[in-house]
């Protein structure tokens, strides 16, 4: 951000230098801060000269913001803190590198991320196979006497604490990939701890609910509570080379009932989310919610991006308006697209499209991976993290996923409302928010190969901006009824 002293000398407006005092005298009604990222990487979350509002009794703007029309509240943005991300941060970075990365991800001068997903067992992006109650085949532990928070979880705890210290709004959503092998049937038996393939044994629904309750409580007593949990990652998909578990919609409803009762008995306030799978099988989420007994325990539905269209979120919301929508996973891959094309798709679908279709969170897959998409134990072989950590030097590369999240995180606070705004003008799309402190946030995305000049109005004032080709811009301004005496930082 340019200093106020610099800005007091001059502002470039429509190609003309205007002093701040003369601009004020001309009747401007405040300032708008701007962050810009361009597909050619010439600007990467770069502060631009603040814009001036101008009074207009009847502004015919391209984008009209109406904060009186509010929609869902926003929880935040982030990614999954996988076992592999934790391992890379712990083993491949020195203390200074680690601290800098945490600030870049979670600090308010970085991406300001605040919502992190934790795999509750090993997944594809892990260093080995584990749960927190692994029993040697063919043993069982129905009383959970051998339960112990796995060491893979344990070494991530100090990093989670550091993340929370960097952002006071930091919260977690947990996601299970597999029950302990001994709770499953039709699985891999003694191979890889029984975590591959299979489904939950019908005799163990209550035991698994007790297991998940103990797991959430184990974090909570370490002062790391979970805001929400998805009981099964991608329950309609059974991977054959990394931990997973198939659940039918009927099974998931039964499990939601068991987990809901177990949480209630323990006094846990953790919200229960179902589905945690793709847009193209949203009908499955509706089938879960059709269970009248389980539905009161279900807070909402979580979605992934790997099939279908984001509008499916609105289909579920229309069917069950009292259930909230979360977006919990999408991964970039090294082999697909360019920085520019990926950035445009991410912002249009996962920020603008997702939140216009009731999403309360914006989340990518692994927070970090190395330059080869590792470590992993199966599944995706070229997944890209939000950041890439060099496995030799510990140096960090911020990927297009980072800039996607940062354009949201820097201007939208926890508890913000999405508010009404004109959806599009030419090749530019928009989404707008009203923060708890009454500041406004606006994100514009221009996915065309040419610049587009736009006007934006709120009430009886308007500002102007030219969106570069293939660019994303985030704007923030204060309540028009508040006197502004300095630029926001």
Automatic annotation (TrEMBL):
What Gene Ontology terms describe what this protein does at the molecular function level?
A: glucosylceramidase activity
Task: List the GO biological process terms.
Answer: glucosylceramide catabolic process
Give start-end of the signal peptide: 1-19
Gene Ontology CC: membrane
**Domain (Glycosyl hydrolase family 30 TIM-barrel): residue spans on this chain:** 75-411
Keyword check for Signal, yes or no.
yes
Q: Which residues form the Glycosyl hydrolase family 30 beta sandwich domain?
A: 415-475
- Sorted UniProt keywords: Hydrolase, Signal
Tell me which domain of life the UniProt entry assigns to the organism this sequence originates from: Eukaryota
Q: Which family does it belong to?
A: Belongs to the glycosyl hydrolase 30 family.
PANTHER family cross-referenced by the UniProt entry: GLUCOSYLCERAMIDASE, LYSOSOMAL ACID GLUCOSYLCERAMIDASE
- Name listed for the protein in its UniProt record: Glucosylceramidase
